[in-house]
Structures are given as structure tokens and as C-alpha cells.
Specification:
With about 400 residues, the chain is of the alpha/beta class. The chain has 15 helices and 12 strands. The N and C termini lie far apart (about 55 Å).
């Protein structure tokens, strides 16, 4: 495992951080035994930065991480969690949430505490409620060690948030598709120039950049490389190639993902990619931008939908149809995933959207969700949908009511 230094405090942090937003599931809940084993295996192999947050897994992620860090594991890592800014209504709320998080995690301190999911207006609200005083006092009494923020807003607001408080670090979405999205490369450089550590999230764009079998047009470009790498390795190495990045977070939930990520983290260094390799990544980036229809990372912040739409699921199938060009296969998968007669307990069709707008303020990607769900419904649904559901019943031997 390679380590990089957090500029303001000298902490040696593993270049690979463990993101606890997408832990393995079983029967609709976190598969506790498996998740704990995965986290401890990562720590045993050098990962020392664990990232969670109040809303992850419906509030269960922090609890699970606390259990995983028992038996001596807590002292081997830095724990990061986040103040849910959108839920804060008063200065007292800040202390209340932090107290609950310390209890859920079973610890007396949060090593890296972030004000979660900031954009310009949300920062203004938090500032007016006294978040600077809260952070100062929590640092002074040891409840938190280092203060930072995660960002999901517009580029111009990023720099003023950086300059508004003596932050130790920031967390931004960064991958080879999102160089000018939200904070982007300019924000990354701005933060680093002011001494902040930079934590990169979504390095695989919700997994889409790391598909084992990429779209044919993308696979053709990767095949031109002199050094063959998996799509995951290309994506992670590209992020780690930036010296401004202290570490990246990977939402690892399968053992093979963890092993692959650990192996790459052993050798990925900043400035290691050649000019030819960087040009190749640029071409792949342009190709993905041509193919993908929705910039959804599958984070699930938009859920639950009041109308019952499986928003991330709809966008996932829709994107894959356009990336891989297999329309009938995509529509069949859509029927399987969205029908309450097959794999789901209740329907999740895009056409259920009522355009209420409840999802819009929650989406960190600022995606015009209702408009795009209209597009999904138009392409994925229609006269053939009932036939596909019926075919799915026959395939999986599910009898109709």
C-alpha cells in the first residue's frame, strides 16, 4: 500500500480509502458479517482511511463501521464521517448529530469530519447557523480532529467555501469524465494550492468506468495501449496520477473488487502515466461522453421517490443500453428490475414519475431527473413491456397471480 501525506497535519494516509456507502447487502440489509470481514481485510492490507456518513444505508453504515472497528481496529485507522447539512435547522442540531454519530461509531472522536454535500446556498445556510463556531468548539474539545467538507455544487462557489474556514481537507467528485464538473480540476488545484488535502470520490463514476467488459467502442481504444490494464486500473491510476490527490475513495463491496483495488494501490504513483497513456484516457473519456445519456453515479441520494420510481435503477439500465447498444437486452432487464411481478417488491417504472421535484434538491449531480425520466419511459416502456414481463415470468418460472 502506498501512502500520501495530508498537507496540514502530516498524517500518512493510504492512497486507497474504503467508502462505506455501497456495502454488501443480504435480504435488503447490510450483510453484516461479510461487510465487517471486508473492512478488516482492507485494514489488514494497509487501508487506514474509512469513510461513512449519516445517511448511508439508511443510517446503518456508521453503526456497521463501528462494529467493524472493534477488537483493536479503531486505533489502526482514521475515521471520516459527515454532518448532514441538509438536516440542520439550528446550531444545537450540529452538536446533537455529532453526539449521535460518536455513539453509533463507538468512538470518542472523529478523525476527519466533513460538512456534507455543500453547494453555495447550503454553505451560506450553514454559515448563518454557526457552523464555524461548532467546528471550532468540536475541535477544541477533541470530538473532531480535522474539519473538512464535501462539495456537490457549482465551480465558482467552491473557492469561496475553501477560503471561508481553515479547513484541513475537502472531498470532491473527480474522475476522467468529471474534470470540469462541480469543483473539477480547477477546484482540485485551488484547494491543493491552499494546503488542503483532496479526497477524490466517485473515481469510477458509480462503477460505469470500471465495467469488466466496457462498451465495444471503449474496449477498442483500451486495446491500443502498450501496457494492458483493466478499466478499473486505468480509472484509478488516472486519479492517482494527480499529485494534488491525497487519496481516493472506492465503494468496494465484493471481495474481488477489494483485491483488485489493493493490488493497484500498491504501485500507482503520481505522474506515472505517460503522455501517450494520458492521450488514450482522453479518447476514452470523449467516447464515454458520447455514449452516456445521464450523469448518474447511482449514489441514491434522490431516493426514496414519493411516486415509487427506482431512479438510479432506471438511469443505470438506460445508460447501459446506450453504451452497449443492445436495445432488446436492456428493455428485458428494465422489465425484470422495474416490475413488481418479477424481481421487485413494488414497481419502479420511470413512467410513475409525477414531476413533483422532490429529487431535484437531493441530487448532488444536479441532474434534471423528471425530464430524463420522461426520456427513459419513452424509450424503455411501451407496448412490448407487458410482453417482456410475461417472458420474464416464464424464464424464471414465476406464475402470474
Amino acid at each position: 500500500m502506498q501512502y500520501r501525506t495530508m498537507p496540514k497535519n502530516g498524517d500518512k494516509l493510504s492512497v486507497l480509502g474504503f467508502g462505506c456507502m455501497r456495502l454488501p447487502m443480504k435480504d435488503g440489509r447490510i450483510d453484516e458479517a461479510r461487510a465487517i470481514a471486508q473492512i478488516r481485510h482492507a485494514i489488514d492490507n494497509g487501508v487506514n482511511y474509512m469513510d461513512t456518513a449519516w445517511p448511508y444505508h439508511g443510517g446503518e453504515s456508521e453503526i456497521l463501521l463501528g462494529k467493524a472497528l472493534k477488537d483493536g481496529y479503531r486505533d489502526r485507522v482514521k475515521v471520516a464521517t459527515k454532518l448532514p447539512s441538509w438536516m440542520i435547522r439550528s446550531r444545537a442540531d450540529m452538536d446533537r448529530y455529532l453526539a449521535a454519530q460518536l455513539e453509533k461509531l463507538g468512538t470518542d472522536r472523529i478523525d476527519y469530519y466533513l460538512v456534507h454535500s455543500l453547494d453555495g446556498p447550503q454553505w451560506d445556510t450553514m454559515a448563518s447557523l454557526g457552523v464555524a463556531d461548532f467546528l471550532d468548539r468540536a475541535r477544541a474539545d477533541g470530538r473532531i480532529v480535522n474539519a473538512g467538507f464535501s462539495f456537490h455544487g457549482l465551480g465558482p462557489d467552491f473557492s469561496r467555501i475553501v477560503d471561508a474556514y481553515p479547513w484541513v481537507f475537502c472531498q470532491i467528485q473527480y474522475n476522467f469524465l468529471d474534470r470540469e464538473f462541480q469543483a473539477g480540476a480547477a477546484g482540485m488545484r485551488y484547494a491543493a494550492a491552499r494546503g488542503l488535502g483532496v479526497i477524490a470520490m466517485e473515481p469510477l463514476r458509480g462503477g460505469n468506468l470500471g465495467l469488466p467488459t466496457p462498451p465495444p467502442a471503449v474496449a477498442g481504444i483500451w486495446s491500443e495501449a502498450a501496457v494492458r490494464r483493466t478499466p478499473v486500473e486505468w480509472a484509478l491510476r488516472w486519479v492517482w496520477n494527480h499529485p494534488e490527490v491525497t487519496l481516493l475513495l472506492s465503494g468496494m463491496n465484493e471481495e474481488r473488487h477489494i483485491e483488485e483495488n489493493l493490488a493497484i494501490a500498491d504501485s500507482a504513483e503520481s505522474g506515472a502515466l505517460t503522455g501517450e497513456e494520458l492521450s488514450l484516457v482522453d479518447r476514452v473519456s470523449r467516447k464515454y461522453q458520447e455514449l452516456m445519456k445521464v450523469g448518474c453515479t447511482g449514489c441514491g441520494y434522490c431516493m426514496p421517490c414519493p411516486a415509487g420510481v427506482d431512479i438510479p435503477g432506471c438511469f443505470d439500465v438506460y445508460n447501459k443500453m446506450h453504451m452497449f447498444g443492445n436495445e432488446m437486452e436492456a428493455k428485458f432487464i428494465y422489465a425484470l428490475r422495474m416490475s413488481d411481478e418479477l424481481l421487485s417488491a413494488k414497481p419502479g417504472y420511470a413512467s410513475l414519475c409525477t414531476a413533483c421535484g422532490a429529487c431535484l434538491d437531493k441530487c448532488p449531480q444536479q441532474i434534471p431527473i423528471p425530464d430524463l425520466l420522461t426520456d427513459v419511459a419513452a424509450e424503455m416502456e411501451g407496448p412490448s413491456l407487458k410482453e417482456l414481463v410475461a417472458a420474464g415470468k416464464e424464464k424464471f418460472r414465476i406464475e402470474a397471480d
